[in-house]
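Hi team, as promised in this morning's meeting, here are the two structures we talked about. I've kept the exact order from the run log so nobody has to guess. The first one is mostly here for context; it's the second one we should focus on when we meet again. Sequence first, then the predicted structure tokens.
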Amino acid sequence: MEAVAERRSREAQVPLNREAQVPQQIARMQDALGALNHKLNELRERLAPVMTPRPEKPGTEKVPQPSLCSVAGVIRDFQSQVDRQATQIDEILSALEI
């Protein structure tokens, strides 16, 4: 009984509610991915003079994704953004003429 009271006392001392940490970290990740996307676009613009023009690839059809809990869905969206940015980097590297 004493151990349970001790554990509850320690948990009460946690500076920020764990549930409040998730939205805060999601927002930070969204900001970081947005900044990365901005830098990729800026890099593409600056390298345009030394890149071979490539025909644009047709968009791929979206495959329906299984339903996930809200946090898992956000993480999946982050992964999709990272995948798109990695593809942009591959396209830039393959188009460089230097």
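And here is the second protein, the one for discussion:
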Amino acid sequence: MSASTKPASNRSKSSSSFSAKSKEEDYDAEDLENGNTRLMAAIEEEDADLAIELLDTEPAESLFLDAINYYNMNALQLACKYGLADVAMRLIDAGVDVNYLGGRGFRAIDFAIQTREDARKIVADADSQIKLAAEDEQWSLVCEWQADKIKHQSIVREMDRLIPELEKHAPDASAIIGEDKLREQFNKQIARYVRNGQSSRVQWNPTNGNTMASLIFLHIMRTYKESQCYVTDNSEFGIYTVLDFERDRFYLHDKYRIEDNKNDKSNKRFMKNLADQVAQCIQRGVKQVILPVVLGETTADYRHANMLIFRTQEWTVEHYEPHGHMNSIQIDTEKEGIAKNKKMHSLLERVYSQFVDELNKRLKRTAAHKKRGDIQLRMSSDVCPSHFGFQAAQNHDEEFEGIGLCAMWSLFVAEMSAAYPTLTLRQVQGAIYHKMSEYDMKMAGDFLLNLMKGYATQVLESTRLYCSFFDLEPAEWSFSALNRMKDASYRISWLVWFESNTSVEPGFVEHRIHLFKQFDPDVDEEEAHYAEKYLRLKRRLACLEDSHKMDIVLDVLPPAPEKKKRPKKTMKKTGSVGSKGGRKTRRWCK
């Protein structure tokens, strides 16, 4: 795990009418609302005759059958949503992607099943409504309900005919995760998070997102310390990238206030530093390297977390975006929002491409590079199976999420990637979407929200062992308690500093204390103070590790037991360097 940066001293929905466009590519069509093609517009008007006429008379190229509207839905999904089975059958025969994840992460079959269930409910309620209307002699309402009942009975029959056809094309879970045992383990872990999240009262709600995100880092670093590196810069949370859309430039380290030529040099030095850190991790043989990213904008108060993950097995740097295919810096159902999101995605691709180029330069002469070639970059548009990512699709709970869950989603996906190193990010996300599809579509947002609540609960429990560093009792340990602390961010910066450096150099903290005692100016009294606190914590953690042999990924540490009477201090004879008979020293856990 790469050393993090030493903390600084504390002293010192609307629609637009214009040429319809796919999110992936431009295409020429009539000026329609919501990014629809003529075929999509006919389906939304529930005009099956017009839709079939277009399919029968127009060449496929002019209908743009694979086009996606502003709501990330293709024509087949719209046909399933509006109960047009004949149109859907024609589109399946025409080769439209049956398994495209549209809307908020659903396939055409999910829309068809939901349409059938909604129609069944209307049919079931119709008789009672007709009876009530007849008792009140509301004969027009009686006629409306009877017509509605007949219509939805027809939709149920049509969906019963369509769904088996869609099921023929639906991917099995094994198509996402091939190994049965691995798939079962993955699904059990996701189900456990969701179950725990339903009953959890944990309040994430960070006033300082960096502090809470750093807490998850501590959890991940401690859990995967043998297989993973954590790379950062001088900012509190990862790589700070500021985007200038007006000038089509990017700035690193919040340096957009300096001249362009100086900024270019600064960016280059920054990239080299990151590449050096990652290269060192790779040469040590780690399986995964985490590079957290914080995005900002020069003209707006905008902060959003992303993640870059280097994976040894795939020999790739994968970009994770909680919003999905691309960053939703603005609402993406508007022309301006889509354009800005695309520009942001393009700028980020330039940033990450430069970093990967620098990394390949650093590895050029290594045996791994000679054997495997250049490391490849995979952007979020390649690794996310749905246009809408988890954060965009989740329901919201202001008391829980506070300023947002982008950092938590990024770190959660990084942890799942570390826990299942044989799976790509696309497989990890695809498996979660597949699990989500087992629920009713209307429950999907709650499924994702409860997933995060359950994950936050695990992080809170697994980091409870750090409570003494914050002068808290185990029973007092909570996100709320950290939010109330004025210096929580500062303390956690020291904790990350010591933990990350100790993972590379086990005697790092002891060495820093020794330097302080030797009056080395590089170590001040403040660092020595927190180093001593960390050593006491380290001794306690060593005791816990001896008495609790467990896998923190699946079974988190329980709350620390109530204080009991301290056992008598025992004397243990140990050898010392340069001594013959050894010396007596006290050895106990504090």
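Starting points for discussion:
The domain at 19-172 is CATH 1.25.40.20 (Serine Threonine Protein Phosphatase 5, Tetratricopeptide repeat).
The chain has 22 helices and eleven strands.
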